[in-house]
Design a protein that fits this description.
By secondary structure, the chain is of the alpha/beta class. The protein folds into two domains: 1-32; 40-142, no CATH class. The chain has two helices and eight strands; from the N terminus they run H-E-E-E-E-E-E-E-E-H. It has helices at 2-28, 137-153; strands at 40-46, 57-60, 63-74, 79-86, 97-102, 109-114, 126-128, 130-132. Strands 7-1-4-3-2-6-5-8 form an eight-stranded mixed β-sheet, with no helix packed on it. Strand 5 (97-102) and strand 6 form a beta hairpin. The longest helix has 27 residues, at 2-28.
């Protein structure tokens, strides 16, 4: 009888561990949802989106205000095209700027909105013109190493 009780407790402990891992995976995987189904859609073009993916958060002042719906390539502009859905509760001026940022040193990327000063607000289907592309770590390291090589080669 004692063996069955130990087996039962081990089973409960293992099941609780799996549930905990599942919850953690959903949190890390951005599965926590922000209801933006009744929001408005905006688009923007970026030179480089880095590792930005669909369902990535759109944040302003650290608050999730929307989600990325689509990431693709535009043959007309030869730039990356990003479509975002912003919750109707949040309004931004037409001259707002978008930046692709990274949470943490090597974390997931998200879009940050910095509000402008225009009196007109973004509406469904508007395109944001002021964008800042993602910082690609490989490019930064390459520029640093190239700069060091140039400095070392000049005899300084």
């Amino acid at each position: 009888m004692e063996r069955k009780t130990v087996d039962l407790w081990v089973g409960i402990f293992v099941a609780a561990g799996f549930i905990g891992l599942l919850v953690l995976a959903l949190k890390v995987g951005n599965a926590s949802t922000v209801k933006v189904s009744d929001g408005y859609t905006i688009t923007a073009d970026f030179d480089n989106i880095g590792g930005l993916r669909a369902r990535a958060p759109v944040r302003s002042a650290g608050v999730v205000v929307g989600r990325v719906e689509y990431v693709g390539f535009s043959n007309e502009t030869l730039r990356a095209k990003v479509i975002m859905r912003i919750d109707n509760r949040y309004e931004f001026p037409k001259d707002s700027s978008l930046s692709i940022l990274t949470s943490g040193l090597l974390g997931d990327q998200f879009i940050g909105i910095d509000g402008g000063a225009d009196t007109e607000l973004l509406e469904d289907g508007d395109q944001v013109r002021l964008t800042q592309s993602a910082i690609v770590l490989e490019k930064v390291i390459g520029q640093f190493l190239y700069g060091k090589a140039v400095d070392g080669g000049s005899g300084n």
